[in-house]
Amino acid sequence: QVQLVESGGGLVQAGGSLILSCTASRSTFSIKAAGWYRQAPGKERALVASISSDGSTNYADSVKGRFTISRDDAKKTVYLQMNNLKYEDTAVYYCAADLVISPFRTIRDYWGQGTQVTVSS
């Protein structure tokens, strides 16, 4: 069964840090490109950071210098290190990725279930 599981969310004070993980299931061969998105109440889901298969990264302006996306291909995991968190970072964070599930098949834009990040002011 193909799965993408996020973890690491929680409650943190402003100025604190969290690390989110996004791990593909054992049935997945590998992760190609991946991205972290977030959706705050009443707002649309938006891209936070992305990473390509060669490690190139891209960040939303609001998180540049505070968040870092990285990947561990051996663990089939993508991380989002979040530092100096602000109240406005509060949202449900989702991971989405292109998953290679066989030598001949890639599932594009596969989404995880989301993890809540709450930053108290």
What does this molecule look like?
The chain has about 120 residues and is mainly beta. It is built from no helices and 11 strands. The chain has strands at about 5, 10-15, 20-25, 30-40, 45-50, 55-60, 65-70, 75-80, 90-100, 105-110, 115-120. Strands 2, 4, 5, 6, 9, 10 and 11 form a 7-stranded mixed beta sheet that branches. A 4-stranded antiparallel beta sheet has the order 1-3-8-7, with no helix packed on it. It is elongated and about 50 Å long. The termini are far apart.
Characterize the biggest β-sheet. 7 strands, mixed
Low-confidence segments, given as residue ranges, are: none
Q: Total helix count?
A: 0
CA-based gyration radius: 14 Å
How many beta-strand elements? 11
Structural class label: mainly beta
List keywords for this structure.
121 residues
Give the helix/strand layout.
Layout: E1 4-7, E2 10-13, E3 18-24, E4 30-39, E5 46-51, E6 57-59, E7 67-72, E8 77-82, E9 91-102, E10 105-111, E11 115-120
Provide a quick synopsis of the model.
With 121 residues, the protein is mainly beta.
